[in-house]
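Working notes for the structural subgroup meeting. M.R. asked for a predicted model of this chain before we commit to crystallization trials. I am recording the input and output together here so anyone reviewing the notebook later can reproduce the run.

Input as submitted:
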Amino acid sequence: QVQLVESGGGLVQAGGSLRLSCAASGRTFSNYAMGWFRQSPGKEREFVAAISWSGASTYYADSVRGRFTISIYNAKNTVYLQMSSLKPEDTAVYYCAVGKRAASVASQYNYWGQGTQVTVSS
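Returned structure, recorded in token form:
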């Protein structure tokens, strides 16, 4: 039994910043990767960023590279997504996920949170 809870979403103006958090509970994670995905109405779930358990390796979608930063705090089983220079096209429900490897494909992740809404206005 694993639960992932996202928080930090909200409404922000274009150019602003927001930090999302995802806390895992139910079991102790070890040697897992964590990632962020997002989905807008009418679109497929999109990979955003991923990080290895050690934090040594990070991966980003081209659409967010240079603007978003993923990090992990192992002691709290928490992953963060720092978002800056936000654009209206970043508007989506953001989901965190846990898998055995950092990957850009959703099917590689085993556990998912319920999502948090991020809305960016012009």
